[in-house]
Design goal:
With 67 residues, this protein is mostly beta strands. 9% of the residues lie in helices and 31% in strands. It has one domain (3-64). Strands 1, 2, 3, 4 and 5 form a 5-stranded mixed sheet that branches. The longest helix has 6 residues, at 41-46.
Protein backbone atom coordinates (compact mmCIF):
# COMPACT_ATOMS: atom_id res chain seq x y z
CA UNK A 1 0.00 0.00 0.00
CA UNK A 2 1.22 3.52 -0.68
CA UNK A 3 1.87 5.86 2.23
CA UNK A 4 0.87 9.53 2.42
CA UNK A 5 2.91 11.37 5.05
CA UNK A 6 1.91 14.62 6.78
CA UNK A 7 3.81 16.45 9.52
CA UNK A 8 2.20 14.19 12.14
CA UNK A 9 0.90 11.04 10.47
CA UNK A 10 1.92 8.37 7.95
CA UNK A 11 -1.29 7.02 6.38
CA UNK A 12 -1.37 3.82 4.34
CA UNK A 13 -4.09 3.54 1.72
CA UNK A 14 -5.21 1.73 -1.41
CA UNK A 15 -6.05 3.82 -4.49
CA UNK A 16 -7.59 1.72 -7.27
CA UNK A 17 -9.81 2.07 -10.29
CA UNK A 18 -9.65 4.53 -13.16
CA UNK A 19 -7.70 7.70 -12.35
CA UNK A 20 -10.36 9.79 -14.10
CA UNK A 21 -13.23 8.05 -12.28
CA UNK A 22 -15.35 9.79 -9.67
CA UNK A 23 -13.49 9.19 -6.37
CA UNK A 24 -15.18 7.24 -3.59
CA UNK A 25 -13.60 7.37 -0.12
CA UNK A 26 -14.26 4.18 1.86
CA UNK A 27 -13.65 4.44 5.62
CA UNK A 28 -13.61 1.36 7.85
CA UNK A 29 -15.10 1.29 11.32
CA UNK A 30 -13.79 0.01 14.61
CA UNK A 31 -12.47 -2.66 15.11
CA UNK A 32 -12.18 -3.40 11.37
CA UNK A 33 -9.45 -2.47 8.91
CA UNK A 34 -9.33 -1.54 5.23
CA UNK A 35 -9.97 -5.17 4.21
CA UNK A 36 -13.61 -4.53 5.17
CA UNK A 37 -14.03 -3.17 1.64
CA UNK A 38 -12.26 -5.99 -0.26
CA UNK A 39 -15.51 -7.38 -1.70
CA UNK A 40 -16.92 -3.94 -2.57
CA UNK A 41 -13.94 -2.27 -4.27
CA UNK A 42 -13.88 -4.46 -7.43
CA UNK A 43 -17.55 -3.73 -8.17
CA UNK A 44 -17.06 0.01 -7.71
CA UNK A 45 -13.94 -0.02 -9.91
CA UNK A 46 -15.80 -2.03 -12.58
CA UNK A 47 -18.50 0.66 -12.53
CA UNK A 48 -15.84 3.25 -13.41
CA UNK A 49 -15.32 4.63 -9.92
CA UNK A 50 -11.96 5.33 -8.33
CA UNK A 51 -11.75 3.99 -4.76
CA UNK A 52 -9.53 5.34 -2.01
CA UNK A 53 -9.37 3.16 1.09
CA UNK A 54 -7.21 4.46 3.96
CA UNK A 55 -6.19 2.38 6.93
CA UNK A 56 -7.07 4.41 10.00
CA UNK A 57 -4.56 5.03 12.79
CA UNK A 58 -4.23 2.07 15.12
CA UNK A 59 -5.00 -0.43 12.36
CA UNK A 60 -2.26 -1.72 10.05
CA UNK A 61 0.70 0.46 9.13
CA UNK A 62 -0.87 3.92 9.66
CA UNK A 63 0.98 5.60 12.53
CA UNK A 64 2.15 8.86 14.04
CA UNK A 65 5.43 9.99 12.48
CA UNK A 66 8.28 9.34 14.90
CA UNK A 67 6.56 6.35 16.57
Amino acid sequence: MPIQTTDDLAITYADTGPRDGQPVLLIHGWPDDASTWDDVVPALNAAGLRTIVPTLRGFGETRFVGN
